[in-house]
Design goal:
Pantoate--beta-alanine Ligase, Chain: A,domain 2, alpha+beta, 101 residues, rod-shaped, three-stranded antiparallel sheet
């Protein structure tokens, strides 16, 4: 079976399209994975800061947030409860801890 003159080169175009789509998919998955990782890191920093704040107050929360490369955005004390919000790599996370039973 002989190809018509207009059919030549279509396989190359199709292959290039598949390669470009695969490359875009890899970039998208990598970006998504980075965001998930940043979210987890922010939550870890928030948890550590909230726990530290129950005994050491705001300075301890700030220290633990900084130790986790995060920024303490909010710090609220209500009785024995402490609530903090930290930011890491554009992701914010909230955590709450108590010093009571």
């Amino acid at each position: 079976m002989e190809l018509e003159r207009g059919d030549r080169g279509q396989a190359v175009v199709l292959l290039l399209t598949v390669v470009v789509m695969a490359a875009l998919s890899v970039v998208a998955v990598g970006s998504f994975a980075q965001r998930i990782s940043a979210r987890g890191h922010a939550q870890t920093a928030a948890d550590a800061a909230a726990l530290a704040a129950t005994t050491g107050g705001r300075p301890a929360a700030q220290r633990l947030a900084s130790a986790n490369s995060a920024t303490l955005v909010s710090f609220v004390v209500s009785g024995d409860d402490v609530a903090v919000v930290v930011e890491f790599d554009g992701m914010r996370a909230r955590a709450q801890a108590t010093n009571g039973p």
